[in-house]
Amino acid sequence: MRKRTFFLLSLILLLLSFQMFAADKYVMKTIGNHDDEVLGVYVNANNTMFASCSVDETIKLWSLPDCKELRTLKGHLGEVNNISFSGNDKLLVSGSTDQTVKIWDVDTGNEIKTLIGHTDQVIGVYFSPDVATPFVASTSFDKTVKLWDVQLGTEIKTLHGHTASINNVAYSYDGKFIASCSDDKTIKIWSTDLTTKEPLLTLSGHNAPILTVIYSFDSKKLASSDQNGEIIIWRMPEGEQIRRIKAHDKLIQDLAFAEDNNRLVSGSLDNFVKLWDTDTGENLLNFDTGTAIWSVDLISDASIITLGCADGSVRVLTKTAETKKPTRGGRK
Amino acid sequence: MKPIVKIFVLLILALIIRVEANSQGAIKLIVSITGNVIDEVTKQPIGVDIELLDETGSRVARAKSNVTDGYYFITGLKPGKKYFLRNIVDIAATKRYFRQKYEINIPQTDSYQEYSRDLLFKPLGNGMEIPLRVSPFSYGKSVIRSGGELMLKRFVDDLKDNPRVKIDVSCFPDNTSDEASNMKLTEDRAKALKDFFVANGIPDSRLGIQANKTIDTKVPPPIERGPKGKQYKGSIYFVVTGY
Question: CA-CA-CA-CA torsion for A113, B230, A84, A180, nearest 10 degrees?
């Protein structure tokens, strides 16, 4: 009897430990390809779809969670560097080497507007969270951040301050701030009101060109990554450094927060995708994809991670142990 | 009549006059355009005279950009109209620029707005190298890729607006491989660009070509793979040879 109880208890403990171990296990699957390198992936707010953009000048839409290709959007005349869904998932914005920003209807795949004003290639684009009067922020190697009124199709504010090419931009989810990052190794925080044109804050701390910035969903954290493979977590809106992580051996082009405002995924040209606990700095996942990664995003509970790869493939990492029903987008 | 009543009556009268004037179109809604003027080569702000033209080409307003930050501001534009912003060429200026024109479409609006538009002007001078920021060629190729024409059309317009300007198209290779094949590649690229300009109405006599067998030392390829948007392709310059 004692032996049996001991055996049963051991079995339960073994199963529990397996469950804990398996919680961070992901499997990788290639779901499709572009004709050239995939520079961006972005999951929509409802976790029902994600978009990918490529050097091949196209954007592709994919369903979630079954990962089927839905349609291809064509219209840019250069590499499509970045994409972002609007707060209601009805629109998509893209920025391109052809120096334009384009707005697309997600349901039809039709191009709605082309926004012309940048004087060098557009690298970063981000929709405001406001659904009623949506704005788009864009950044370019022309060293400016531009704010566009989507309904009017007009440039309404140009922000100057960075002294080198600007790599990416992100709205805070409370809609109050825009963060931009640059080759000048600084992050600038701007007000989203239409009159203030000076930066509210300049954050210094990176030792290399900063390639991306992203707010957590509660807008209380900002994560940034650089060309040396380092990530910094900032407390916002104060702009204080919380944590530095030497995360990768090569540049980190993209980051994304999970909805818990804690877990952060990073993708690098060193072929690795990593998941981080931003409160403790703990490395939760270390996945060698075998190819350089340009872009990452995840659905809200981090059970699916989408990847844009330098070999032209679009891949997903799917968590094998837990299956939670998605509730809200893991938007970058 | 008490003062308070007088003020009230005056206010009512002013309101009536305003409504009447508005209905007759006497009070027109205007909007403004603002931005920064920048040297296309140095990317530094410049102070130049600019003029606002309406669709018929008539001057509507004139302004000067601030030499320190390139800032300009023009008001009095009408919603729903198309305008052009153009620099006023000053032949006595120490640094001259191409004559260039930017189209501005003002959207319909029912309230005062300020719209933004930055202006880039190409410097003019013998030997001046104007870089083509985005290569119209794929890596290792000499055929203008789909979409590359649109970016080149802007330069075609600038050449048409500056009929005395002559240029050489100068191309550099994408890598440090075989010099003979690099020479052929850059010659083919320069010819492709020249052919494009000729096909779009620029006389052959205004165009020359320069091929290069070695990479551009001013903008060498990176040792490691660069970030997004910085994949290396050989430089292309339009070198001013006469104006």
Answer: -100
For residue B115, list chain A residues with Cβ-Cβ distance below 8 A.
Answer: 154-156
Q: In DSSP terms, which residues pair with A189 in a beta bridge?
A: A179, A201
Q: How far is CA A150 from CA A90, B51, B98, B107, in A?
A: 13, 28, 33, 12
Report the largest interatomic distance among the alpha carbons of chain A, rounded to a whole angstrom: 80
Mutant choice from B106, B116, B139 vs A, greatest count of A C-beta within 10 A: B116
State the Cα–Cα distance between residues B141 and B193, nearest whole angstrom.
Answer: 13
Q: Choose among A214, A241, A236: nearest CA to A225.
A: A214
By Cβ distance, the residue of A117, A141, A269 closest to B225 is A269
* Closest residue on chain A to B42 (Cα): A142
How many CB pairs below 8 A link A and B? 80
Give the H/E segment covering residue B211: strand B207-211
Could A81 and B147 be called an inter-chain contact, meaning their C-beta atoms sit closer than 8 Å? no
Whether B228 and A253 lie within 8 Å, measured CB to CB: yes
Distance, in Å, from the CA atom of B134 to the CA atom of B165, rounded to the nearest integer, reads 22
Phi/psi zone of residue B188: left (φ > 0), alpha (ψ -120 to 50 degrees), beta?
alpha
Whether B110 contacts B78, CB under 8 Å: no
> What is the model's pTM?
0.81
Identify the closest residue of chain A to B106 by CA–CA distance: A154
For an interface test with B, give the residue of A58, A140, A160, A196 to mutate (most B CBs within 10 A).
A160
CA distance A198 to A228: 29
Tokens of B15: 């309101």
| Chain B interface mutation, best of A115, A125, A146, A154, highest count of B Cβ atoms under 10 Å | A154
Whether residue B227 and residue A253 make contact (CB cut-off 8 A), yes or no, is yes
Provide ipTM, 2 decimals.
0.71
Q: Which residue of B has its CA nearest to A82?
A: B228
Q: Is B133's CB within 8 Å of A79's CB?
A: no
* End-to-end CA gap in chain A: 56
Q: What is the full per-residue pLDDT of chain A (332 aa) written as tens digits?
A: 566 665 555 555 444 444 444 446 899 999 999 999 999 999 999 999 999 999 999 999 999 999 999 999 999 988 999 999 999 999 999 999 888 999 999 999 999 999 999 988 999 999 999 888 899 999 999 999 999 999 988 999 999 999 999 999 999 999 999 999 999 999 999 999 988 889 999 999 999 999 999 999 999 999 999 999 999 999 999 999 999 999 999 999 999 999 999 999 999 999 999 999 999 999 999 999 999 999 999 999 999 999 999 999 999 999 986 544 444 445 56
pLDDT tens digits for B185-238?
999 999 999 999 999 999 999 999 999 999 999 988 877 788 888 778 899 999
